[in-house]
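Page 37, continued from 36.
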């Protein structure tokens, strides 16, 4: 036990055993060889509870997730987990993240009758991917070869899935945010003015013709990077006789989403002129924004639309109840992404609720943490999961 919070909630750090990949995919030997992932459990003090809500994301550190306390106050155990790739997605393999979620689910099953997945943001890709593979395993390795055979992993499914401000696929948002005006990967400031969303002559607002050309340009650039990645993988393997199977590289221009400047595209209540990292033209080159650094294999696993195993289609294999909550002012997840989820649900036991005025991180809306947690608890209660 790490401590008692206001005499109402208890918290503890969970060291969860997991199977390492055998690859040097995490630079720290301490982390890589520990055989542990980490999670923070917050639960009511002095009370029994039968349900654990596992908040997950492929790379974010959810030990301090904003809903942990509020969920625990409703009477469930709230668990914020980290995968082995916490804080660094440059070598992230989604298939290994599935194994990490499985390790957490099995660990929690020792103490709780029910385990519920809460996929927040990028967890909206990971939770359906895990649950779909746990119910109907089909993946036998990484998109680029090697990796775990999930059909033989004995994945243990959760009892329900909650998606909060969630996007269906890192590859989808990577493509929709990729700057098509960068024509030379080695010269990030040489830009094609005809495809430059920051060129005032193009907008905003942007014409239908420009949007069509822009989206096509994004696809071309993404596919060009993927083709380069596959060729480079072959070269690396040949050069090192298989001893080296990966290589790092940089992608510039990663937050050039037309929707950040034009509210008429996929309309919502989102604020314009900002991304999750600030001004679009600045965050477009910012090292700490999404997917600037990648390895060859990681690109295929998480960023390539043609190759990734992630995506909303994984919900087709999910039979458990599904709850979707989405902030109408989410600047990273437009309503069209919610429809991607809904169109792939194959049963009738699902609900979708909007959170009016809520941004991706609930900025200025922290007073809603409690009501949102109670809404989740009520839904779980209706499904006899608390």
């Amino acid at each position: 036990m790490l401590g008692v919070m206001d005499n109402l909630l208890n918290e503890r750090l969970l060291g969860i055993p997991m199977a390492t990949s055998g690859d040097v995919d995490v630079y720290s030997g301490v982390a890589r060889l520990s055989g542990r992932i980490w999670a923070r459990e917050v639960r009511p003090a002095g009370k029994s509870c039968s349900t654990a809500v596992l908040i997950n994301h492929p790379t974010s550190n959810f030990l301090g997730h904003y809903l942990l306390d509020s969920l625990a106050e409703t009477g469930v155990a709230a668990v914020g987990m980290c995968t082995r790739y916490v804080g660094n997605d440059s070598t992230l393999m989604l298939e290994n993240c599935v194994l990490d979620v499985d390790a957490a689910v099995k660990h929690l099953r020792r103490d709780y009758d029910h385990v519920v997945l809460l996929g927040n943001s990028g967890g909206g890709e990971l939770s359906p991917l895990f649950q779909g593979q746990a119910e109907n395993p089909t993946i036998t390795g990484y998109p680029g070869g090697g990796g775990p055979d999930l059909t033989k992993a004995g994945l243990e499914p959760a009892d329900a899935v909650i998606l909060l401000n969630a996007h269906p696929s890192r590859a989808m948002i990577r493509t929709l945010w990729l700057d098509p005006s960068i024509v030379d990967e080695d010269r990030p400031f040489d830009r094609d003015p005809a495809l430059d969303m920051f060129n005032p002559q193009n907008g905003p607002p942007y014409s239908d013709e420009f949007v069509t050309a822009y989206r096509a340009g994004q696809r071309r650039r993404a596919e060009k990077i993927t083709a380069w990645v596959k060729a480079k993988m072959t070269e690396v393997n040949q050069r090192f006789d298989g001893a080296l199977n990966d290589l790092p590289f940089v992608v510039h221009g990663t937050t050039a989403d037309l929707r950040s400047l034009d509210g008429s595209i996929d309309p919502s209540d989102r604020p314009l002129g900002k991304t999750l990292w600030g001004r679009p033209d600045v965050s477009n080159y910012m090292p700490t924004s999404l997917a600037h650094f990648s390895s060859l294999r990681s690109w295929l696993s998480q960023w390539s639309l043609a190759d990734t195993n992630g995506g909303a289609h994984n919900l087709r294999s999910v039979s458990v109840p599904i709850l979707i909550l989405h902030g109408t002012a989410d600047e990273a997840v437009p309503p069209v992404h919610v429809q991607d989820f809904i169109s792939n649900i194959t049963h009738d036991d699902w609900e979708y609720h909007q959170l009016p005025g809520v941004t991706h991180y609930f900025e200025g809306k922290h007073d809603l943490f409690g009501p949102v947690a109670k809404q989740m608890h009520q839904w779980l209660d209706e499904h006899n999961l608390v």
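Residues 199 and 314 are 38 Å apart (CA to CA). Flag for discussion at group meeting. The mean pLDDT is 95.
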